[in-house]
Structure formats: C-alpha cells, structure tokens
Amino acid sequence: MLNRVILIGRLTADPELRYTNNGTAVASFTLAVDRMRSNSNGERQTDFINIVVWNKLAELVSQYLQKGRMAAVDGRLQIRTYENRDGQRVRVAEVVAEGVRFLDRGEGNQSAKSASAAPPVKNNTSPAPSKQPDFGPYDDPFADDLPPNFEDDMSF
Asked: Which CATH number is 15's domain given?
C-alpha cells in the first residue's frame, strides 16, 4: 500500500508554530494549490490544503516560510477525527509533511533568501545536509527506482 502526496503551492498565511506538552515542535499552515484544469467557466479553481509539520522541520518552516511563499510539500495524507468544544465529532483531512522545499525567495528578507538556496529538509532529527543531494542520472529524484541497467536499455 502507498500513501504519498506531493504538492506545490503558496502559503495562505504564516505558519503557526506550537509545542506539545513534551516539547515537540509542530507547525501548521495552509497551502493554496491550483487545479490542473479549468472549470466549465474557464476559471482555474484552487484547493486549500492543510499541512502539518513536526520536529526540527516545523521550526525551519516557521522560521523561513511566510504568507505568499511558494513551497513543495512531500508527505502523507492523514484523516483524523476529534471532538470540538461543542461536543461534535469533526473529521479533518491534512497532509503530514515529511519534506518541504522552499521554491522562491522571500520579499527582502535575508534569512528567507538563504533558506531558498537550502536543500530540501526531511522531517527527522539529523541536521540538514550541507549541499544539494545528488539525484543521479538526469537529475531525476526517482532514478533510484529504475532498474540497474536502465541507461543501457534506453533506445530512443
């Protein structure tokens, strides 16, 4: 089974950083993602997708991303339910980010400029690598999924 979501869009507001009772960082934001096709009126619709980021990645996202910035999110879809203050059960769909890539430069913010050149950050406790990862042949991030002799077998 596979649960994988990849999104590219713009933040609708600054990320909100919080800490759990045991000190774990968690940030949330909404990503506005345009649909590929226009509706019957010729207008492109936009989906507003809730994103949740944990640990060190949450702190980095909170520090370097702001409203309007473009970002790519790689993660998994999570459906959860909770009971609100009125006692009603609420069902929420959100993407739990495992990686976030900053795709544009911030408006005049020096720290945001340096973040845009940073490599993609994975949601773990190890520090981010100091250089852009080598994606292999043709700069394809999925090249590791190819058969071992893929380049030799290409006939186009």
From this structure: 2.40.50.140
| Average pLDDT for runs of 10 along the chain of length 156 | 96 96 96 90 92 96 94 96 94 96 70 41 47 40 44 41
Q: What is the CB neighbour count within 10 angstroms for residue 64?
A: 22
Distance CA 147, CA 104 (A): 34
pLDDT reported for residue 122: 53
Kindly report the backbone phi and psi dihedral angles of residue 115, in degrees, each rounded to the nearest multiple of 5, phi listed first.
-70, -30
In a domain, 109, yes or no: no
Contact 30, 71 (CB under 8 A): no
Residue 86's domain comprises: 5-36+43-102
Residue 90 lies in a domain: yes
Residue 141 is assigned to a structural domain of this protein: no
Mean pLDDT of the residues in the chain = 78
**Is residue 132 classed exposed, middle or buried when 0-12, 13-18 and 19+ CB atoms within 10 A define those classes?**
exposed
Please report whether residue 9 resides in a domain: yes
> 69 burial class (0-12, 13-18, 19+ CB within 10 angstroms)?
buried
